Amino acid sequence: MPFVPDFTTPFRYRLNPCLAEVIPRARRWMRASDLVDDAHMLEYEMARIPELMAAAYPRASADDLLLSCDLMGVMFTLEDEDCGSNPRHTVAGIAARCKAMIQVMDGAAPGTDDPVVLAFEHAWLRLCEGMSDAWIARHRGNWKDFLDNHYAWEPVVVEERGMPTLEDYLGERAYSSGMYVLYDWSERFSADRAEIPQAALDDPRLATLHRDCIHTVIAINDPHSLEREMRRSDPVPNLVKVLMHHEHLTVEQSVERSKKMLADAIEEYLEVEFDYLAHWWRSDLSPRQMGAVEQRLRDLRNWTSSNCHWHYIVPRYDHVARDPERDRPGLPTRHPGLLGEGA
Question: SS in 3 state form for 8-55?
Answer without folding.
Answer: CCCCCCCCCCCHHHHHHHHHHHHHHCCCCCHHHHHHHHHHCHHHHHHH
